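Researcher: Quick test of sequence recovery. Tokens follow.
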């Protein structure tokens, strides 16, 4: 499927696409990417990052970084997710990514139905990562960066299998939570993690371990 911005926009209209990765997991930050593609430097194969194999996604991410007019990553940490809630933390990550884009823009197109407060006109697009090329590119960069971050956390906390589940809900992840309790990058505002905190009451206070 070919991806295009809003057909009402002129073909020279410079837009920035924004998308995130990591709203659903039980652990780790939420990461957003902002991308301004170069209309004179086309990239083949951009689509929703979830539809791509990891090797293809990684290769496209490198091509996007090499060929885009501008790109940036923003993130919101676990403490911000637990304090603000996941929606507002996601919008914060998006605004942080946008703030690192330093080229003139006419429009920012954002995946989903809610937009961060930024100093530029915005347009939300439900399932935009499969409809708008710049949003698809942002979804790829956000996913690749978040996977990289979770692979690093897997080295620090190997018992949770973050190199396999990337912080998402899985039977093995839940078993590890029940056995070891949450680690510092678990989202304590998420129900399965809260349940593990209540359930895993060891002789020493769990909060002293975190």
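Model:
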């Amino acid at each position: 499927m070919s991806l295009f911005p809003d057909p009402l926009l002129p073909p020279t209209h410079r837009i920035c696409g924004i998308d995130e990765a990591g709203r659903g997991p039980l652990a780790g930050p939420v990461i957003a990417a902002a991308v301004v593609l170069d209309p004179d430097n086309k990239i083949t194969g951009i689509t929703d990052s979830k539809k791509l194999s990891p090797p293809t996604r990684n290769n496209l991410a490198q091509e996007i970084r090499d060929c885009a007019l501008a790109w940036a990553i923003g993130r919101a940490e676990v403490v911000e997710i637990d304090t603000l809630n996941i929606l507002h933390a996601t919008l914060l990550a998006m605004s942080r990514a946008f703030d690192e884009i330093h080229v003139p823009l006419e429009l920012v197109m954002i995946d989903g139905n809610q937009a961060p407060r930024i100093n530029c006109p915005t347009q939300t697009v439900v399932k935009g990562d499969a409809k708008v090329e710049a949003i698809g590119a942002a979804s790829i960069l956000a996913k690749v960066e978040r996977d990289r971050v979770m692979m690093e956390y897997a080295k620090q906390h190997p018992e949770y299998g973050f190199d396999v589940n990337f912080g998402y809900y899985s039977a093995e992840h839940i078993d590890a939570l029940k056995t070891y309790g949450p680690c510092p990058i678990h989202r304590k505002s998420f129900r399965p993690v809260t349940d593990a905190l209540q359930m895993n009451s060891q002789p020493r206070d769990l909060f002293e371990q975190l």
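The longest strand covers residues 15-21.
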